[in-house]
Amino acid sequence: MEASGTFEVKISPAEGTSFEKAMGVGRYEIDKTWAGDFAGTSKGEMLTSHTESTGSMAYVAMEHMTGNLGGKSGSFYLMHRATMTKGDASSGEMNVVVVKGSGTGELAGLSGELKIIIDAVGNHSYVFEYEMVQP
């Protein structure tokens, strides 16, 4: 099945651990509001890193989603992993997947992969390829 829509995102710096501070790793809190075929909210944490000399960048994140998908309500986790070269979005590789077994309520048995699209002016949209398997 496929779901699509838009989301608004607020990213705020968060206090890093001593390791993160020493290594130049950034920590951020994520708050999103989702509209479209998935309607709801999400909260998460993201870690970022970059290499000044090459422009290489990466992030990982965990995001807890709560809402309605295809008329079913519940929650689930998304896991993010991405790399790119600064200033060259086409160089990137992003993988955002449902954490297996994390679905609750009517979303128990959910699996899938979410594609994030950011247009030229910074608007965010998504395409979510998913399936529901009864646990």
List the helices and strands and how they pair.
Layout: E1 2-13, H1 18-23, E2 26-36, E3 38-50, E4 56-69, E5 72-85, E6 88-98, E7 110-118, E8 124-132
Antiparallel strand pairs: 1-2, 1-8, 2-3, 3-4, 4-5, 5-6, 7-8
Summarize the structure in words:
With 135 residues, this protein is mainly beta. Helices cover 4% and strands 69% of the residues. It has one helix spanning 18-23; strands spanning 2-13, 26-36, 38-50, 56-69, 72-85, 88-98, 110-118, 124-132. It has an eight-stranded antiparallel sheet, with no helix packed on it. A hairpin with a 2-residue loop joins strand 4 (56-69) and strand 5. It starts with a strand and ends with a strand. The model has no long low-confidence stretch (mean pLDDT 94).
Q: What is this entry, summarized?
A:
By secondary structure, this protein is mainly β. The protein has one helix spanning 18-23, and strands at 2-13, 26-36, 38-50, 56-69, 72-85, 88-98, 110-118, 124-132.
